[in-house]
Each structure stands twice: as C-alpha cells, then as structure tokens.
Amino acid sequence: MTVLQKKAHNPIGHLTPEDIEQLGVELDAIRQSVIDTRGADDAAYIRKVIATQRKLELGSRAVLLVSMFPPAWLVGTAGLAVAKIIENMEIGHNVMHGQWDWMRDPKIHSTTWEWDNASPSEQWKHSHNELHHTYTNVIGKDNDLGYGIMRVDEDQRWVPLYAAQPLWNFVNACFFEYGIAAYDLELGKNLATKERRQDPDFRARAKVTLKKIRNQMTKDYVIHPLLSGPSFLNTLAANATANLIRNLWTHSVIMCGHFPEGVETFERKSIVGETRGEWYVRQMLGSANISGSKAMHFMSGNLSFQIEHHLFPDLPSNRYQQIAPQVQDLFRRYGLTYTTGSLPRQVASAWKKVIRLSLPNDFLGRGRGASVTDLPASEPAREHVAA
Amino acid sequence: MSLTAPSTRATRPSLRRRFLQLAERATSPLLPADYLDLFDPLRPGADLRGRIVAVHPETADAATIVIRPGADWAGHVPGQYVRIGVDVDGIRQWRAYSLTHGPRADGNISITVKAVPDGLVSTHLVRESQPGTLVHLEQAQGEFVLPTDGGKLLFVTAGSGVTPVIGMLRNLYPVADDGVVRLARSTAYDIVVVHVAPSEPHSIFIDNLRALDEAGLIRLVARYDDEHGVLDVADLDTLVPDLHERKTLACGPGGLLDALQRHHDERGLDLLTEQFRVTTLVVGEGGTVDFTSSGTTVDADGGTPILDAAEAAGVLMPSGCRMGICFGCVLPLREGAVRDLRTGAVTTATPGETEGQGVPIQTCISAAAGACVIDH
Fold first, then answer.
1. Distance (Å, whole) CA B345 – CA B282
2. How far is CA B174 from CA A233, A259, B166, B206, B320, in A?
3. pTM for the predicted model, two decimal places
4. Is A294 strand, coil or helix?
5. How many CB atoms are located within 10 Å of the residue A300 CB?
6. How far is B86 from chain A (nearest CA, A)?
C-alpha cells in the first residue's frame, strides 16, 4: 500500500511493456464504443436529472418556508440535502468534467456551469481535472492525497502535527466545501510567505472565491430564512443541516475513491515519459470503487465507479455502470486487483488508514518503511512503470 | 392621486430591480430563469425557443414544420430566414431555414424542409420531428425579401431554393379554402417564376405555384432536368422575353447563382441572390486549432470549417447562418493561417505584426491552413 515500486509484491510485476500497451488499446476500444453510441437517450437522462433536481430543490425550499413545523423541517431538510448532493455529484462534478460537452448545449457545458458549492467552478476544474486526474496518486504531485493536511502514505515523513489528523479529517468532512475551496486556492502554500500572499493572481482568485462564498451564504443563511418569516431560525438551521449532510456525504464518497486499503500510490519519477497504457494502469490501481444499490451509485454521482471514472473522466456518468463489467473482465485477464467494497467497508477502511498513519510507521510495531525499501524483486517491474 | 402618481412611477423600476436582485440571490449560482424554464420555456424574457405544433408532409422527402415561437418572437418579413437549433442524437445543431409565409393569424411560424442526402438536420426534421418538441430559435434575419413597392419581378429558384420565394408569394396571394385571395396590395406586382428541379414529383410547393399560375396571378415556367435538360441560363432570354424589364431574385445552389450573376452582369441587369448551401471549392492542408480561453486543441482537416471541427470536439462556438453570410461566427485569429473554403483565399495572422487582437475570421467558411490560434 505504499509507493508501488517499493512493494514486496509488485502488482504489475507480471506485465510486460507490450501487455500494458495492449491493455491501453483495449481500454481505448471501450471508450470508443461509448462515444459511438452517445445519443438522445443520454441527453434525455442528464436533462431529466437536472429538471428533477431543480424541482426537488424548489419543493424542499418551499416546504421550509413553514419550517417551524417539525414535519416540514424534516421533509424540507432531507429534500434539500438530497438536492444539494445530486447537484454537486451527479450533475456539477460530471458536467464540469466535460462529460456532457458533446451535446453542445450552452446551459449544460463545462465552460458555463457553476455549482452549488463554495469553490468557484473555474478553480475547481483546474485543481481537479488538470492536477488530480492527470497526476492521480502520484506522491507530491496529486494534492488530493491528503489534501496537503494529512499523511496518507507510509512514505510521507511523519511529524507530530499528523497525530491530530483524525480530528482534521473530521473537521474537513463537516466543512468539506470550504476545505475544497481552500484547497483549490492552495491556501496553505499561498499564505505561507508574504510574496505569495501578495501575488496578484492569488489575490484575484481569492477574491472570486470569497464572492462565491458570500453569495452561497447569503442564499442559504439570509435570503431563504428571511423569506420564511417567523420560521427564520428553523430555515437557517435546516439549510445549515442540509449543507452539513452534503459535506459529510461527499467527503465520505471521495475518501472511498483513493484512500481505502488496496489503492496504490506512485513515485514522482515513475510518471516521467509515461505512455498511454501506463497512465491507464496507474488509474486502474490508484482508484477504488464502491459496491451498492442503484440509488447509492446515483447519489455518489457514479463516483462509486471511481475506477471507470478515472479511466474515462469525460464519458457520461450514466455509462460507467454499463462498462464496469468489461473493465472488471480486463482487470481479471491482466491479473490486476479491482478494488471495491460496500460503502461502510470502504469508509471504515479509509478512516482506519487516516488513523493508522497519524502515528509513525513503526509505532505499533508493524514497521513497513525499513523492510520494503530495498527489494530486488521489484526492480524489473520498476523499469516497466518508469519506461 | 396627482401627488402620489409620480412617486409610484419613480419607484416602480427600482422595486422591480430589487425584486429581481432578490430572486437572483435566492437562486445563486443559477438564475431565476433556470427554474422558470422548467415550467414555461416560451415565456416572455426566456431565451428564444419554440415548440413544434405540427409536421405536414409535402412530398416524399419534404415536410412543413409548424412552430409556436416563444413570447419574444419579434415577427418576420416573408423570405427572411430563421436559425433553428434542433437536438439530433442528443447534439444541438443549428441550421438556417426560410420562412415560407407571412405573419399567420395563429402566431405560429413554419419552415419547409427538404431532406437532403447526408443532411443530418433536414433528414431528422422531415422524418423524425414530433409535435411537442422544443427547439431553439433566433430572431428572423436576412435581406432576401420581397421588394415592398411592387413592380416586374423574376424569381429564379432551384430545388429547395423555392422556399423563401413561396414565403413571399403566399404573403402576396394567400390561399383560402375557396381559392386564392386577391389583395389590393398585390396588384402592383407582375411576377414570373422560373423553377428548376431534377424532376417533377420531387419539386416541393409545385402545386402552390401551379395554382397561382392557373389563377393568372403569376406566370410559372417549370423546368425539370429529366424532361427539359439542365437549364442553361442563356435560355432565360427566350423563356422570359421581357427579362430586361424585370428585377431578378434568385435562390438556389452556388453554381446556378454564379452563372446567373455572369449572365445578368453581361446584360447590365439587377440581381438579388441568396445562396442556400456553401459549396466547398478548395481543400488545403489542415492543422491544429488552439482555442485560447478554453485551452482546447482541435485537429481540423483542410476541408472542414473550423466551426464544425471545433463543435465536433465539444467547444461551444458562436455561429450563425453557416454559409458565410451573417458574420455571427466571427472570431479573432491570433496566429496561423486559414483558407476560405469558397474562394481558396488564405488569411494569415502573425503575433506582433497583425494589428489589434488578431484578424477576424468567419469560422463557418474557414478551414485551417496550418496550425492556428484563435481567441475564444
């Protein structure tokens, strides 16, 4: 579970460079088969999801106008939380990936979409689409690994601050949308020195983020409570609760994507001169799926098909489920591990890792670092990856 | 009343504005329109759309589509065209069609579409469009319209090029159940129509033209390729003996219009034309096209308009008539070379040498002639 090249058992040691290229060809074929059949049904799907989400949001907010009545509060809060989750996951995340750009509908397009979240879409697209999806699970390049505030790999040096990371992770989960906004602004890095703080580009981006946050807060914590009149405080609490539920849910789903046991990480130098096939292999080993019901897949924005999503980030999300059996078959034929598990299991696995790595590697007497740093068996495999 | 009335008037706009601001704050980051569109996409203030209310077959491969336009439709003059955005296989496609009628009593508009071979949109509209479907519209535009002051006119139409002319004629000579209505304003016109088509059964609107001819309102000269041979424009001198007294309006493919232009220029006659389809004359080498704002790079071959290549790659492009007329698709070429598909002319831009922010090019008739950088 540490940097791939140092593992005792290299999960791709049995593959030749030719195997990896052939695997890339097969994945390209799966991708093309989806592109060739994209059409009216897919367009109808996303339009229906968007229309349903907006009606659910309108209805929930309408019910919350009388949120002083407990049943109205419960129904409205639940509806709004679900609407916000759908908006962020199945709609926003996927539209901003360009999954629906092929429809040429300016209202459902990655360049025009703005989502119900603290981070402005423009900044999120840069840090997520360009950095995370390109450098998936490469230590030091993919900041999604621990979001710069946590230790998520044995190879990251332990410092005492990490002892509190279970707490950070929980706080981050509760305020996840602001965590994402801070992360997209690279706040840690950009606030570190005076020079960076005064960089005009950073200041401009920070201004955009603050305006977005102000608009978001005005909507949820001023306008809608005011519209509720005597139910002001109840609606305010309802909106805060819906945002909290959305934050906890999205954080859980996203933790399941790359943190659970079984997911591999990669060294910075391993991706120099990486081929298309090698890039695919990194996505396959660096992501984990969540198994579950149709409703769970939908509410996760089909990020429960994280492996399929990472292989083909710009294919329509409704198609991941459809190609999953083909992708699994590919894993089986090439002897690779398709990491998947139920939501509770994967969330627990990810949390376990966060807690374990909050302590130094040898703290519990299961030192890994020392035993795996020099394994000749992994040498040939390293050449494959770095070739 | 006299005291309060002015103050009410003065505060009304600001109240309205405040209400709109409040609504926008309540729906941020979306707009109130995004929610209203769910319930009434044709309401005043919405993006211009229309709903198909009927599809009437005209011939084996042509149909008239009747559309109820949104509340903000500003009306049109017969012969103008309208740009319609239709989703075909889930992909928004924009095409320009002539409006084949004057203002209708029911407030609807209609277009007549002939399914052309390989015509993605025309085939979809003729064979698959259903009443109830929402389409996207732009306001009517175009200068190929009926002169308002009457006079002696000659219409030369080829194939589906008859459609804007039918629009003008229907407006002049409305057909009611009991025959053609003779309007006072129509007596000032003396019209000859030379209509060309490959063969008779495929000639759309021919019944319409024939009825007007039989009623003595126009003179129809129908020429079918399989019966009379392909029309030589020089024959117009004999087909229309008083040609020199007439103003000619022609609508059809580029080849016919070019021949007519030469013919009329030689004789010093007036000609107003409307080309229906871009004819690709030249194919050069293609290249990559970089779009600066979106950061997208598109591989475009030398025979495909940059507009089509970019759209196929998922870039949202401004577009208009798609035939080099309306300049709705113009974008600045920052760097590189493009070729005009109609003339072969090459336009180049070099950073530092080209003035301003680049050379404006029409992306609908320009293909890449090497690597290009476009501001968009």
1. 9
2. 65, 73, 11, 15, 31
3. 0.81
4. helix
5. 27
6. 10
**Residue whose C-alpha is closest to residue B360's, from B338, B333, B342:** B333
Provide, as residue numbers in chain B, all residues whose Cβ is less than 8 Å from the Cβ of A116: 29
Q: Which helix (H) or strand (E) holds B192?
A: strand B189-197
> Residue A335 has which token pair?
């002897």
3-class SS at A215? helix
Q: How do beta strands B62-69 and B49-59 pair? A: antiparallel
Task: Please list the alpha-helical segments (H only) found in A287-333.
Answer: 294-299, 306-311, 320-333
Q: What is the pLDDT of residues A92-118, one digit of tens each?
A: 999 999 999 999 899 999 989 999 999
C-alpha span between A263 and A297 (Å, rounded): 20
CB A347, CB A256: distance < 8 Å: yes
What is the rounded distance in angstroms from the CA atom of residue A135 to the CA atom of residue A271? 8
CATH superfamily of B49-137: Translation factors (2.40.30.10)
Residue B40's pLDDT is what? 96
Distance CA B158, CA A25 (A): 49
Chain B neighbours among A 270-329 (CB < 8 Å)?
none
Residues on chain A touching B36 (C-beta within 8 angstroms): none
Q: What are the extents of the domains in chain B?
A: 4-32, 49-137, 151-275, 287-374
- Looking at residue B288, its amino acid is T
- Stretch A134-154: mean pLDDT, rounded? 79
Question: Hey, is the C-beta of A216 within 8 angstroms of any chain B C-beta?
Answer: yes
When pLDDT is averaged across residues B118-122 and rounded to a whole number, the result is 85
Q: Which of B27, B28, B90 sits opposite A43 (nearest CB)?
A: B90
* Element containing residue B126 per DSSP (H, E): helix B120-127
What whole-number distance in Å separates Cα of residue B315 and Cα of residue A110? 10
Domain spanning B287-374, CATH architecture:
Roll (3.10)
In the three-class reduction of DSSP (H, G, I as helix; E, B as strand; rest coil), residue B33 is classed as helix
Distance CA A78, CA A76 (A): 6
CB neighbours of residue B346 within 10 Å? 14
Contact status of B87 with chain A (Cβ, < 8 Å): yes
pLDDT of residue A7: 65
Q: Is A36 on the interface with B (CB under 8 A)?
A: no
Task: Say yes or no: do domains B49-137 and B151-275 share a fold.
Answer: no
> Distance between CA atoms of B181 and B175, rounded to whole angstroms?
6
CATH code of B151-275, in short, is 3.40.50.80
Q: How far is CA A144 from CA A133, A172, A237, B237, in A?
A: 10, 13, 31, 77
CA distance A34 to chain B (A): 14
**The sheet that has B49-59: what strands, in order across it?**
B91-98, B81-88, B134-137, B49-59, B62-69, B109-114
The three-state secondary structure class of B134 is strand
A153 Rama sector, left if φ>0, alpha if ψ -120 to 50, beta otherwise: beta
Question: In angstroms, what CA-CA distances link A61 with A76, A273, B35, B102?
Answer: 6, 52, 13, 46
How far from chain centre, in Å, is Cα A298?
A: 15
Smallest CA–CA distance, residue B26 to chain A, in Å, is: 5
Q: From residue B269, give the alpha-carbon distance in Å to each of A35, B102, B154, B245, B272.
A: 53, 28, 11, 9, 10
pLDDT band at B2 (very low <50, low <70, confident <90, very high): very low
Question: Is B294 within 8 Å of chain A by CB?
Answer: yes
Q: What percent of chain B has pLDDT over 90?
A: 41
**How far, in whole angstroms, is CA A68 from its chain's centroid?**
36
Examine the pLDDT at A139 and tell me if it is beyond 90: no
Kindly tell me the sign of the dihedral angle through the C-alpha atoms of B197, B199, B200, B204: negative
Tokens coding A269: 């130098």
